[in-house]
Write a structure and sequence with these properties.
heterodimer; A: mainly alpha; MetI-like fold; 15 helices; 74% helix; 0% strand; B: mainly alpha; two-stranded antiparallel sheet; 14 helices
Chain lengths: 281, 305
Amino acid sequence: MFPRPIEQTSRASQVMYKVALPVALFIWLFPLLGVALTSVRPSSDLASGNYFGMPSSFAWHNYVEVFQNSPIGRYILNSFKVTIPTVIGTLALSCMTGFALGIYRFKANIYVFFLFVAGNFVPFQILMVPVRDLTYSVGLYNTTTGLALFHIAFQTGFCTLFMRNFIASLPRELIEAARVEGIAEWRIFWYIVLPLMRPAIAALSVLVFTFIWNDFFWATVLTTSASTQPVTAGLSSLNGQWVAAWHLVSAGSIIAALPPVAMFFLMQKHFIAGLTLGAVK
Amino acid sequence: MTMLNTETRKSSWWRTNQQTLTPWLFLAPGLVMFAIYVVWPIYESFRISFYDWDGLGEKVWLGWANYQELFSDRAFKTSLYNNVIWLVLYMLAVPAGLAIAIFLNQTVRGIRIYKSLFFFPFVISQVVVGLMFAWFYAPNFGLFYKLTELITGKGIAILANPNLATYGIIAAGLWPQIAYCMILYLTGLNNVAPDQIEAARLDGAKGLKMLWYVILPQLRPATFIAVVVTVIGALRSFDLVSIMTNGGPFGSTRVLSYYMYEQALSEYGYRMGYGAAIAVVLFGIMMIFISGFIWKMVRDERGMR
């Protein structure tokens, strides 16, 4: 193990390490703590200049106020309406592409694979004008469906990379044996490969959920009104309206951050497995 | 064979070709979506960059005029220059992530919670990160302002200062990026071969020497991914600029991704052609990196088979 386990060092450095941990964490998460405290700060505190001390009382009603005075409930609903179909659509497509690229050996295989990988890296701006135009011309501009369709297509690139590597690592004998038995290829996919892909599906669901929930660029490009905007774009416009109402902006931020944070803590193992794919050989 | 009826002939044709056709049938839906939303738009953006177009009316052919305009456009130069600063400073996320990963790679009680809390910033939307830092930097009462006031006697409103604002935004961007690199390295450190470390320890290696000669070579896959995601993150920097400064003050924090959006879609007018030309330049820069990454991946792929 590197570095040397702290248990093997002197008593003094063990104590130092145990003190350093919470201190480092406090500094690291300071911006977050500040915002969390501000979100329960009564507006009178802000008026009297108490920006960073403890709040004089806990104003939980800031949260109520955010829901009452802004369409944030609607924004959150829109975010779900974009995120959930995207997760389902992307996984359906990438299970299939990953299966095709991970199991079959054909000439174009590696080219198709690298097309997906390379497409995943392109800057969004090179897609922006045509995608917006396309979405507009099929009547899906400013709809959650239009936004979800684009996300499905784009995320398929990343997910194909993941799925293909996962499937390629499955034991090939399993598939060979099924073929000898004369089982149809689509049955091999459905009954043999798909059940084995559960960990990959779990990891990608959390990752895609977080990526799409947090997307801001496409939300601003493809949606414009409060009835369709996801919470990231909504928060940005609320920030413009609530100048200096930091307690409300903070409460809104916390609300917007909650779903992916909850997802992360519930599915931590899968999340990290997905994110660190390829970080080890 | 001629005796067989069409039904069985069809199925035997399917049987012989099943192996070649099945992968394409499985690829079809994904490939079609990808072609419509990713491949075709890239081609289309290249084409639009040669036109003057407001997004609705007739396209007017301009030839290279949009690109020529870029050369004399000061805002474009500022954006390009800022992109370089972003790329260079963003790279700090890689060693910083490694440092935190080494710091946290212990087995004391509760360390798992520490690890996840350190990873926290990456899970939060960049919009929220931007708002947090804007508040942290806020003039007159922001903690950063107060701190600089305490140290230098005069508070610095970093986001209002054209010479410093970009650095303020990059610092905000580094926060989640360091967390990302940290988690990559934590996973990497977990898989470093223990016998090699023990062997090196017996040979008297420790500290930085151990890190450089024994650990880092084994962390190479993690480093590769950390560099890839950091380069992409630096070139995609749009959210933070948009949330924290809107490209200001006086356009000093624009980056190519933001400037492109501003030209093509903002209230200043819909210059789709010019925006597309900026996007093509950004794409070109990204392609330099992408081809490098892909080249390395192809090499590894060949090595594996």
